[in-house]
Write a structure and sequence with these properties.
With about 475 residues, this protein is mainly alpha-helical. The protein is about 45% helix and about 5% strand. The chain contains 20 helices and five strands.
C-alpha cells in the first residue's frame, strides 16, 4: 500500500514567477506535490492605496503565472478573503502539512504573516517564510552600534559583504493538484470594484515579458547605465514594475549584472542596493508610512490648495518637465526616476503641499509602487526621511533640471504635445517666448499651454524659510 504523498502549499503574494523562487524550489525539493495558492485579500485590494492600474497588472501577471504552473503539471488555486482563514482551509482540503511563502518588509505584510503563522500552527500546519524579494537579507545590516542603518552609503558597504543565496532553477513538475480541490478563478477588475486609469501600460505584464526584458537589458544596454540613467528620453531599464511584482528575481538580476563587470552594470547593482536599503528602513521603521522619519520635520507647515494639487496631478503647472512627468505617469503607469525627483521636489518645495498627497497619487497610478520604495523616495525628496542632506540641496530648479537632462526637449515634446513646435531654445521655459514666437509655435501661453502656477525663485525661499523654522537640516 503506497503512502500518501506529502503536500506543501506555496502562497504567492507579490513574487509572481516560477524562476528562482526559493519558496517554490524548497517546497518541491521537500514534498511530492506543490499546491500554488493566491489569496485575494480585500483589505489590500480596496485598502488605503487601492489602485486599478496596479491591480489590473497583477491580475494579468497571475493569469500568466497560472499558465506557467499548468505547464508544470499544476495550476494556481485562487481564493478570496482573509489569508489566515483561507490558507488553513486550502491546506486541510489539499492535505498539506506546510505553507511556504516569500517574506516581505511592509508593515501590513508582516502583521498579516504573523496572523497566518499563528493560524497555521494552531491547525498543525508548518509555516515556512522564505527569502526571494531582495538581493540579500535586509534584516541583517547593523551599524557598529548595533542599530539599523539610516544612511545609504554605509549600508551599501555592509550590503556588499552580506551572504547571498544561490539562484535556483525552475521545477519541471509540481506533482499535480489534489483531485477534488476547487481551483477557483481570477476575478475581473470590475468585479473587484476598480477601474484601470492607465491607457498605455509601460510594459507588458507577466514573467515571460519580464525575463525577455531582463535579458535584453543585461546583454548590453546596462553597460551605458552610468552615463545615461538620468537622460529623460531613455537610458533606464524600466524593470521596476517587474521587480515590484516579482516577475523577475532581484537576486538573479544582481548575478547577471555583476557578470557584465562594467561601470554601467555596477551602477545598476547600486540601484538594487537602494531597493534593499529602503526595505531595510521600512522593516525597522514601519511608522514611516504615516509620519516623517525625522521628527523635527513633523512640525513642517504644509499648504492646503486643491487647485494647485489638481494642476500638479494633471500636468497643468506650466513647467514642462513637471507636466511631462505627470502626464507620462497618467498614461503609462510609470515615470522616469529623474522626473520623479523633479515632480516630487516641485510638489513639496514649490507648491508646499504635503508629500503624503504625492505618495498617494503615485500609489494610485504607478505599476511599480510598493510601500518601501514609494515612501522612501517621497521622504527623500521631501527632505524628511533617511539618508539626510541639507534640505536646500533637494530643492530642484525645474528649468535647470529640464535643460540638463532633456537638452533637446525630446521628453517634453513626447508628453506635452502642445510644445511640439516650440524652438529648442525656449522649450524649457516657453513663457519666455515673445507673442510672435508663441503664435508661430502654435503655443500661446495661457491659451494653449498654462502659465507657470508659481515663481520658482520665490517659492524656493518660502520653502527654505519653512524648513529652517523647524530646524536646520
Amino acid at each position: 500500500m503506497s503512502s500518501r504523498p506529502s503536500t506543501a502549499i506555496v502562497w504567492f503574494r507579490r513574487e509572481l514567477r516560477v524562476h528562482d523562487l526559493p519558496a517554490l524550489h524548497d517546497a518541491r525539493a521537500d514534498h511530492d506535490r506543490v499546491v500554488p495558492v493566491f489569496v485575494l485579500d480585500p483589505r489590500l485590494i480596496g485598502g488605503r492605496f487601492a489602485s486599478g492600474p496596479r491591480t489590473r497588472f497583477m491580475l494579468d501577471c497571475l493569469a500568466e503565472l497560472d499558465d506557467a504552473l499548468g505547464q508544470r503539471n499544476s495550476g494556481l488555486v485562487v481564493r478570496e478573503g482573509d489569508p489566515a482563514t483561507e490558507l488553513v482551509d486550502v491546506a486541510r482540503e489539499a492535505g498539506a502539512d506546510a505553507v511556504l511563502w516569500t517574506s516581505d518588509a511592509a508593515p501590513y505584510a508582516r502583521a498579516r504573516d504573523r496572523r497566518v503563522t499563528e493560524a497555521l500552527r494552531e491547525a498543525g500546519i508548518e509555516p515556512v517564510p522564505c527569502p526571494g524579494s531582495y538581493c540579500a537579507d535586509v534584516s541583517k545590516p547593523r551599524t557598529g552600534g548595533g542599530k539599523p542603518y539610516a544612511v545609504f552609503t554605509p549600508f551599501s558597504k555592509v550590503w556588499e559583504t552580506l551572504p547571498r543565496r544561490e539562484v535556483h532553477g525552475t521545477p519541471r513538475d509540481l506533482g499535480g493538484l489534489p483531485s477534488g480541490l476547487r481551483k477557483g478563478r481570477l476575478p475581473s477588475l470590475q468585479a473587484l470594484g476598480l477601474t484601470d486609469e492607465v491607457p498605455e501600460p509601460v510594459v507588458a505584464p507577466g514573467e515571460r515579458a519580464a525575463r525577455a526584458a531582463m535579458h535584453d537589458w543585461l546583454r548590453g544596454p546596462v553597460d551605458d547605465y552610468a552615463d545615461l540613467h538620468d537622460r529623460l528620453s531613455g537610458g533606464t531599464s524600466v524593470m521596476s514594475p517587474y521587480l515590484r511584482w516579482g516577475c523577475v528575481s532581484p537576486r538573479e538580476m544582481e548575478v547577471l549584472a555583476r557578470e557584465r563587470d562594467t561601470d554601467g552594470a555596477r551602477a545598476y547593482v547600486r540601484q538594487l542596493a537602494w531597493r534593499d536599503f529602503y526595505a531595510h528602513v521600512l522593516l525597522h521603521h514601519p511608522d514611516n508610512l504615516r509620519h516623517e522619519y525625522q521628527e523635527r520635520f513633523r512640525k513642517l507647515s504644509w499648504d492646503d490648495d486643491e487647485e494647485l494639487l489638481d494642476a500638479w496631478r494633471e500636468g497643468r503647472t506650466g513647467f514642462p518637465i513637471v507636466d511631462a512627468g505627470m502626464r507620462q505617469l497618467a498614461r503609462t503607469g510609470w515615470m522616469h526616476n529623474r522626473a520623479r525627483m523633479v515632480v516630487g521636489s516641485f510638489l513639496t518645495k514649490d507648491l508646499h503641499l504635503d508629500w503624503r498627497a504625492g505618495e498617494a497619487h503615485f500609489e494610485r497610478l504607478l505599476l511599480d509602487a510598493e510601500p518601501s520604495q514609494n515612501n522612501g523616495n517621497w521622504q527623500w525628496i521631501a527632505s524628511t526621511g533617511v539618508d539626510p542632506a541639507p534640505y536646500f540641496r533637494r530643492i530642484f530648479n525645474p528649468v535647470l533640471q529640464s535643460k540638463k537632462f532633456d537638452p533637446d526637449g525630446d521628453y517634453l515634446r513626447r508628453w506635452v504635445p502642445e510644445l511640439a513646435d516650440v524652438p529648442d531654445a525656449r522649450i524649457h521655459e516657453p513663457w519666455t517666448m515673445s507673442d510672435a514666437e508663441q503664435e508661430r509655435a502654435g503655443c500661446v501661453i495661457g491659451r494653449d499651454y498654462p502659465s507657470p502656477v508659481v515663481d520658482h525663485k520665490h517659492e524656493r525661499q518660502v520653502a527654505m524659510d519653512r524648513y529652517r523654522a523647524v530646524g536646520e537640516g
